């Protein structure tokens, strides 16, 4: 390893230790609904058009926003997720309330029903950031999203977002064996639509993707995805598109410096918390049930944040896994939380070790 990565690795380890010790809440994800207008093949949450459990009311979300402002500070940013947040009838009301409080909020969307009118309402409600999912060009996006018109509608949303004055906008792409070889075409399509930030994800085997071998990259294909970023990151930056490997998955520092602007750090439970649509408290919305640590309907959020998140911060449960014997364990520390179910002996996938 060259000197620069070695130094950065040590500095980053020290920085992470300080962040974990302080665990200042910076982002709160609000899964305002589990309902969705798509039936995607890879959905980790198995979201559907209709659900069979009660969700938090709009008044409950308003009270949560009040609580966060009063207990923490206005610096905490909210991110509305789903399901599909745009199907929630009061998304603009919730966003407007966050704006009224002088706080920031963003949204993750599939873009299916995002039109000019809805975008205007989002902007008037103070939206600061928006993340759109685009998983390939027409054939492959429609296939993964399990919808024949998904690409047409998402493309419309992409154009609207790209031409909007929303301060931060980015696109995320879930990479499968089907779209792995069209990443350059996707990049060019994003540039055409004035998108400047692009994050690439590897689909992880959870939810509907758990037993669907068509969705999951092999270890070799995963390395090919990394090489795409390494070979193209600088060239596309000069064209106005910044490509990053997503926040999931540890890779050695000498590789990390080539595929991400900032080194890997799973901030779930460190700076990030989520409240799911039924009130469940966890780290990220993608975390498995073994990492659910409370519920706002019966627990005090700040008590849970201070006392129930050691499974994210200390990760003592990793001592019972095969990761503890890995030469990378000290730096990796089990990688991303959402790649685990409590009781697993190994993560769902690893960028460094072929789990076979």
Structural notes for this entry:
- The chain is an alpha/beta fold.
- The protein has 12 helices and 10 strands.
- It has a 10-stranded mixed sheet, with helices on one face.
- Helix 7 links the parallel strand 5 (168-175) and strand 6.
- It is globular and about 50 Å long.
- The relative contact order is 0.13.
- The model has no long low-confidence stretch (mean pLDDT 94).
SSE order and pairing:
Blueprint: H1 3-22, E1 27-31, H2 58-71, E2 77-81, H3 91-100, E3 105-109, H4 116-124, E4 129-133, H5 138-145, H6 150-162, E5 168-175, H7 183-192, E6 197-202, H8 219-238, E7 242-245, H9 253-259, E8 272-275, E9 280-282, E10 294-295, H10 301-307, H11 310-313, H12 329-332
Parallel strand pairs: 1-2, 1-8, 2-3, 3-4, 4-5, 5-6, 6-7
Antiparallel strand pairs: 8-9, 9-10
